[in-house]
Amino acid sequence: MGDYYRGREEGRGGGKGGGGPRRSQKRRHRDDDDDDKEYRRSRPYEREDTASRLRRDTISIAESPLTKIEDTINLIANTFASNYDNEELRNTFLNTLLSLVVEQPFKIPFLAAAVLVINSQNAEAGKLILDEFGKAAQAYLTEGFLTSAKLVLRFLAGLQGMVEGDGLYLVLGSIVDQAAGYLAVEEVGLALDLVWIALITVPYILASPKSDNSLAGELLKKTSPITEVKHRMQSLLSPFTGGYAPYDPRAQGTHNARILQLNLESYLGSEPSRPFHGVGCLPRPYESFLPELEGATKHPMPEITLPSDYPVDKSSIMPNIYFSVFADPNVETVPPPLGLASTLFRDAIVDTIDTLDCNRLVVSRFLIEIDCYFSPNAFIKRAVPFDRVIETAGPEGSTWKPEDVAVDAIFSQLYKLPGPNHKLVYYHSILTELCKLAPAAVAPSLGRAIRFMYKNLESMDTELIYRFVDWFSHHLSNFGFTWKWAEWNENLTLPDVHPKKAFILGALEKEIRLSFATRIKGTIPDPYKELISEAKEKEQPHFKYDSEVGRDYKQFSDSPSDEPFCKEAKEVLHAVADKKEDAEVDAILAKIVELAKESGVADPLFVARDAYVTAICHIGAKSLSHVLSCIERCKEKLLAIGNESPDARRQIVGSVLSYWEDQPGIGANVVDKLLNYSIVTPLSVVEWVLHDAGNKALSHTHAWEMVSTTINKVNTRVRQMVAARQVMSINDYTEEQLAVYVQTLNAAEIEQGMLLTAVTDALTAMSDSSDEMNGGIDVESKAWMQWWAKGWLRAFSRKFGVAEGTVVEQPVADGGPSTRLDPEDMDTM
Amino acid sequence: MPITTVQRLDAPSSYFEKRERRRSTSPKPDPLKDASTLYVGNLSFYTTEEQIHELFSKCGEIKRLVMGLDRFTKTPCGFCFVEYYTHKDTLDAMKYIGGTKLDERIIRTDLDPGFKEGRQYGRGPTGGQVRDYYRDDYDPGRGGYGGREQRPVAKG
C-alpha cells in the first residue's frame, strides 16, 4: 500500500484504466492508443543515492501501517543528521519537506516529529529547518497563498517544543489582530479566513510535546467576537433551507470559524470524554522520543512579519458552512459537528482534496487510508458494516468509520455554496475512485449518504438538488447503472413536481443522456419503466409536420388539424436540406405567413418561424455536428429571424425545445449553441424557461441547466471584462479604444441587470401563492411549484449576489440593475 | 504552485513526444503547452456525440467535437477529438474524466496539439483504428474481433 508516489511504477493508472495484463507478446505495432510507457520504465530503486532514498522515505512517511513510525522517523533523522554536511542531500531534504507540508497535509505531524528528533541530534540542522519554514510562512503570507501559509504554520506548531518562549502563539496573536482590523473595514470573508488559520493551528500546538492551554485560552478570547460575525451572504450559503435541521442545529448555517471557536472552547473547558476526542484524535508520533527531546536545544522563533495587506480577491472569499451527509441518531459514524475531531478531520481532508486535484488516484488512496494519519484509536477499523459498528467498537472504542468521514468531506465540497473549489466532476471522480479502490467499504457508505440526501430533499437548497442529480447519475454510469430503486417505489405516486419524484425523474433523464433510453429501461424495476416514454427510445424525434393529418388538411383545408401548413413546412424542410437559396426558402415561409393570415392565426410569423426552426432541428437531429453545421449554414437567416423581436427569439428557443421534447437535454444543448451565435439572447432563454416552459419546468433538470448555464455565462463575461478593465492602461490603448471597451462593459452590465430583474420578477410571481394561472392543478402540486420557485429565487439571488460582489466599481449605467438584492431578505425562504 | 511529490494525471502520454523525436532532432516549442484538444480513445463504436458531449461538458464548454470514423465506411470507429475553449478545461478533463467510464467503457484521454483534417479517419488496414486490427479479443462495442482476426485468409 501507499506506493503511489513511485511515479513511473504506478504511472497514470487513471489514464490507462482497465489495469491487468494488457499487451500480448506478438503485438509490436504502435497505434493511436499506444503510449508505450511500459517499455520506458526504468527500475526506480536501482543505484539510488542517499539523498534520493531519503527523499523517498520522507515522502512515504506514515503511509504504511506495517512499518513502525518510530523506525521511519529514526531512519530519516539519522540519515539527515549524519549527512548534514552533504549540501545536495541537505537541500533535497529541505525542499522535500517544504513541498510535502503544503502538498500532503496529512503527513505534517509526522514530519514535525522527525524534525524534533533531528533537532535533538543536531541542533544546527534543527535551526536550519525552523528558519527555512519561517521564511516559507512569510513568503506564503506575503503572496496571499493562505492555505499554504496555514499548513506551514501547522508544521511550525509541531515544532513548538524546540522553540523558546511562547513561540508560534505570538504569530497567531498578530494574525488575529489583523483579522479584527479587516473586520472593522467589513472584509468579513478575509477576517474569518485569518481567524480560521490561527485557530486551526492551535490544536496542533496542543498536540505537540509542548502544549499550553492558557495561551490557547487567551487567543480564543480574542477570536470569539470575530467569529460571532455573520457574512452578508451567509444566509444564502446554507445547504439546507427553512427550519429543518438534519443535524445539530448549532451547526446549521453556521460558518466553520464559529464552529471551530465553539469546539476549541468546549475542548479547553472540559476534559474530553474519550482519549481520542478533541485534540486526542491527532497523532503523536513523537511520543516514544520524549526522553531524547527533553534536553534538545531550543531556538528563537523565526521572525514572521505579517504583510500589511493580502493580495487576494477579498470580495470573493465566502465563509464555509458545515455540511454533512451522515447524521444517524443512533450510531455516530462521523464525529458530531460540535466536536473538535470533526473540524480537524474535515480541514485536513479538504486541504488534501484541494491541493492534489492533479491526481485523483492519490487523493483516493489517502482517503481510504485516512486512519493511518490520525491517532491509532480515532477510527474503527475499515469496512466494518454499519449494523456491526456498535458491537465492534465496544463500550470504549471509536465508532467513527474512516469511509464515512472521507465520503462526508467529499460531499461537503461537492455541495459547497456558492461554488466548489474545483469543478464538480473532480469530486465525482474521487467518489468513483474510492468505490473502485475499496468497494466493500465505500459503496455502503455512499448508499447511506444517498439515502440521507434523498430523505432531506425537501429542505435542500435547489442548486444542491441539481448537483445531487448530476452526481448521482454520473456515478451510476460508472457502475453499470445499478441502484436499489425499489426502495423508493412508494414515492412514484407523488406528483411529478414533488422534490423526490423530480429527483427520480431527473436522475433517469441524466442517466439516459449519458447512455440511452433502452439501456436505462433495462436497469430499473418495472414500476419505473413507465417513467421512460417510448418516444425517448426513438432514434430521432418525429417531424411534427410530417403527418397524415397534414395531408388531410390539404384535402379539406377548412378542417381542424393538429399541425396546419404541413405541406409548406415539409417544403421548408426539403429546401433547407437541399441547401436551396435563401430566396426560395423565404418564398415558402412567406406562403406560410399568407396562409396563416387567411386562416386567422393570431401571429402568422410565429408559424413560419416554427416551421423553419423545426426544419433545422430535424435536419440536424442525427448528431450535434449535424445540427451545428446546419445552424452555421442558416446563420444569417436565423439571425434575421431572431432580430425580428424579443418574442421571436423566445419562440426560437421554444421551437427547439418542442422538437426535442422527449430529449430536452439535447434541445438545451442546441439552444446553448444558438446563444453562442447570438441568434437568441440570454434573456430569451431565461424568459422562455420562466414563462413558456410550463409550470412544471422548475423541477426539470434541463430547465435548471439552461438558466444557470446562461446566467453563469453572462456573469462570467462581466467578471472577466471588469478584471480586464482594471489592468488596461492608458499607455497600451487609445482613449477611443478604452471608451469602446467601457461601453461594451456597460452594455454587458445592463444585460446582467435585465436578467436579474427578469429572473427575480418571474420567480417572485411564481412563488406568490395568489397565482391564478395554474388552474386545474392539484393543491399539492401547486404548493410544490411555489416551493421550486422560492428555491430558484434563492439560488439565483446567490448567483447574482456573487457576481455583483466581484464587481469592484459599479459604473453608473442607465437601466442597470435596478433592484439590488439584499441577501438577508432572502432568509425567510 | 506546481505539485512535486505526486504524479500528475494531466501530463501528455509519450505519443507525441516520440513522434516529435522521430521527426526532428532540434528542440521545438512544446506543441501541447496550450493544447485545448483532447484525443479520446477506447470508445464504443455506438457511443454518440451527445453522450460524449454530456460527459465532457462537465469540464467546460465544448467548442468542437470530431468523431473518429472508419475511413472506408465513414462510421464511428471508437475515438474522437474534443476541443475546449481553454487549456485549463482540457487539463481538467485529463485529470477528472480520463480513465473513467463513458457508455460503460473506461475511456482514455490524451492531450492533442489540435485536430487537422484527415485525422478523423482510422489508420488501420481495414479502415478503423490500428489497435482494432491487431486486437485478438472479442469486443462487442468495437465490432467484435479485431480486423486481422476477421480476415478470411489465415494468418502467418
Automatic annotation (TrEMBL), chain A:
Q: What Pfam families is this protein classified in?
A: MIF4G_like, MIF4G_like_2
Comp. bias (Basic and acidic residues): 1-13, 37-51
Gene Ontology cellular component annotations, sorted alphabetically: nuclear cap binding complex; nucleus
Q: Which Gene Ontology terms describe the biological processes this protein takes part in?
A: mRNA export from nucleus; nuclear-transcribed mRNA catabolic process, nonsense-mediated decay
- Chain intervals for the UniProt region annotation (Disordered): 1-51, 810-829
Q: Name one GO molecular function term.
A: mRNA binding
Q: Which residues form the MIF4G-like type domain?
A: 335-526, 561-801
Official protein name in the record? Cap binding protein
TrEMBL record, chain B:
SMART domains (alphabetical): RRM
Q: Where is this region: Disordered?
A: 14-33, 116-156
Q: Does the keyword RNA-binding apply?
A: yes
Q: From what superkingdom does this record's organism come? A: Eukaryota
What positions does the domain RRM occupy? Answer: 36-114
A GO BP entry is: mRNA cis splicing, via spliceosome
The terms under GO molecular function for this entry are:
RNA cap binding
Name where it mostly resides. Answer: nucleus
Q: Give its localization.
A: Nucleus
* Keyword Aminoacyl-tRNA synthetase recorded: no
Q: What name does the UniProt record give this protein?
A: Nuclear cap-binding protein subunit 2
What organism is the protein native to?
Tuber magnatum
